């Protein structure tokens, strides 16, 4: 049933918990695990060398986030793929779920945002509202 699992991570403890659950589900189902992190668009008006520096900084931080998630996931028997994508998190996650025919999207209830009074972060809320497949929110 969960042949294609999409995990979205932002480096928060919440998303690392989601990574652990995604690893367990992948081991149970034997399915493929696709892990993504989205970063904000780098504004072109920055000019060089600021533009290149900003891109390098974002890609470095995205690679760290993906490496931390991989550590939580552990060994899985199915295919594993990770990538960082430029764009708004929820839109990127929704688009990726469609293109990869995800059977489930796994993410945290909250992320790195500071608005602790809310139950759900804005990105998990948007994905939950608009996804065409089951969404698992981990807390
Ligand atoms: P807000 O961003 O609205 O201030 P928040 O940061 O607490 O609130 P969300 O951003 O909705 O909450 O984060 C919920 C979950 O969404 C995270 O645990 C993570 O799984 C996913 N997520 C958030 N941002 C990203 C991102 N940039 N790339 C991939 N997944 C993300
Ligand atoms: Mg957030």
Write structural notes for this entry.
This protein has a five-stranded parallel β-sheet with strand order 3-2-1-4-5, with helices on both faces. With 139 residues, it is of the alpha/beta class. α4 links the parallel β4 (104-108) and β5 (135-138). The chain has four helices and five strands. 44% of the residues lie in helices and 21% in strands. Adenosine-5'-triphosphate is lined by residues 8-10, 12, 14-15, 18, 36-38, 89, 107-108, 110-113, 115, 121-124.
Structural class: alpha/beta
In this entry the ligands are: adenosine-5'-triphosphate, magnesium ion
Strand count: 5
Compute the number of helices: 4
Beta strand %: 15-25%
Task: Report the span from N to C terminus.
Answer: 23 Å
| Large-scale geometry | globular
In short:
The protein is α/β, with parallel strands linked by helices and 139 residues long. It is built from four helices and five strands; from the N terminus they run E-H-E-H-E-H-E-H-E.
Pick out its properties.
single chain, 139 residues, alpha/beta, five-stranded parallel β-sheet, 4 helices, globular, binds adenosine-5'-triphosphate, binds magnesium ion
Helices and strands in order:
Blueprint: E1 4-8, H1 13-29, E2 32-39, H2 50-73, E3 80-86, H3 89-99, E4 104-108, H4 122-130, E5 135-138
Parallel strand pairs: 1-2, 1-4, 2-3, 4-5
Magnesium ion binds near residues 111 and 121.
